[in-house]
């Protein structure tokens, strides 16, 4: 868990890939671990979303993911709520890796501020802003 005043520790879901997006965020100074690094390859492909949401929330890590159908995944939303996870999701599935990284970086200050608040929370990361999906829009 990150200490007060320090940048948060981020966890990149498999949906963002193992190399390009994580490397671009690390190059910008983000403290980040990928699902593959945490669980190992090929075990990373078998870990249920609800399992890694629980574990990362308990570790105090902030989740980064890509999921255009997040609104419809009740088990994952319930896990976010139960374990008080803090998640930032890009809801477009048709962008290049560099664009995904650019979206996170363009919203870095807002993400870091929102990540400092206790969960549960889910924010959609748009090109130039964050949109709160939970609490409110997913209830």
UniProtKB/TrEMBL annotation:
Highest taxon listed in the record's lineage: Bacteria
Span of domain VapC45 PIN like: 8-91
Protein name: VapC45 PIN like domain-containing protein
Native source species: Sphaerimonospora thailandensis
